[in-house]
Amino acid sequence: MPLPDQIAPSILSADFARLGAEVDAVVEAGADMIHFDVMDYHYVPNLTIGPLVCEALRKHGVTVPIDVHLMVTPVDGLITDFAKAGASSITFHPEATQHVDRSLQLARDLGCKNGLVLNPATPLSALDHVLDKIDMVLLMSVNPGFGGQSFIPQTLEKIRQVRARLDTCDQPVRLEVDGGIKVDNIASVKEAGADTFVCGSAVFGSDDYAATMAAMRAELARI
Ligand code: DX5
Ligand code: ZN
Prior knowledge:
eight-stranded parallel beta sheet, 34% helix, binds zinc ion, 8 strands, 8 helices, alpha/beta, binds D-xylitol-5-phosphate
């Protein structure tokens, strides 16, 4: 079941000293949602931002969906805190929680969309038994932890395989891809079956956010 394309700029590559203005700028430039990368220097070798920053963005007036990507372990406490802080969707890595089904349900019980994140080497069997309980699958096309890495080309085949599995679901499930997406490869990511595109350095590293996202949309429209 095809869903409309969505572009999700990752604020990991934003200027954190001016975060509110940066988010306003990408929303003005056409972002469908804000991708919010949470790293704990434990699950991944980097440390970023937590629920206080999410809440601050909501207080600043951000109304677009905030898509929280948890790269932390354990996850349940932060699912609760981010739901309270205004997250719209919360995804986590299945190996980072003791009880995947419980964590998925927790996010939904708190009014958020949920999803599982698969690292480049995580097998698709991580989706077994939960496909009817998730709103999105986030496929990593780089190893998690840093912005600005190169897209791992083998991801395209993995996207196709996830797409085939999601097409068997009764309910629509978003297929989001995260890492190394640029104007020159976003079309191939869509062609493989993705509908949601995380773009960090490609957007925030450009001089003109609107022009970059317009170029991405033009590429998506070709498929
Ligand atoms: C990596 C993060 C990504 C990252 C993407 O661990 O999950 O969301 O910000 O950045 P780019 O688009 O620069 O690869
Ligand atoms: Zn991410």
